Amino acid sequence: QVQLVESGGGLVQPGGSLRLSCAASGFIFRFSGMGWYRQAPGKQRELVAITTSVGITNYAEPVKGRFTISRDNAKNTVYLQMNSLKPEDTAVYYCNRLGYRDWGQGTQVTVST
């Protein structure tokens, strides 16, 4: 079955960086678009970034210029490099196989002093 396992979250100070990873299995990763979403307390889940199967990327406006999504098809893994983090980036971050209801368990990112 499809599995998506996120990791790399944690507590970081404003201005800091984190790199999230999502290890995928159970489907042909290299043919799949992948995305990162986030959900803050009391808010709806929102799109952060996507990468198509051929590596075309797109970002939500609040993270443009600060976050970078990438993928390693040899490792069946998608990454989210997050720089210049802000308190408003605090959320649970989820990995998603685009077009499917496949979600990981999420990884908590907290940006705070």
**Uncertain residue segments:** none
Task: Please tell me what the overall shape is.
Answer: globular
- The gyration radius over C-alpha positions equals 13 Å
Classification by helices and strands:
mainly beta
Strand runs, count: 11
N-to-C SSE string, H for helix and E for strand: EEEEEEEEEEE
How far is the N terminus from the C terminus? 40 Å
Mean pLDDT across all amino acids: 96
What fraction, in percent, of the residue positions are helical?
Answer: under 10%
Q: Hey, roughly how much beta strand do the residues contain?
A: over 45%
Taking the sheet with the most strands, its summary is: 7 strands, mixed
Helices, by number, come to: 0
Report on the architecture of this protein:
This protein has strands spanning 3-7, 10-12, 18-25, 34-39, 46-51, 57-59, 67-72, 77-82, 91-97, 102-103, 107-111. It has 113 residues and is mostly beta strands. The strands form two sheets. Strands 2, 4, 5, 6, 9, 10 and 11 form a seven-stranded mixed sheet that branches. It has a four-stranded antiparallel sheet with strand order 1-3-8-7, with no helix packed on it. The model has no long low-confidence stretch (mean pLDDT 96).
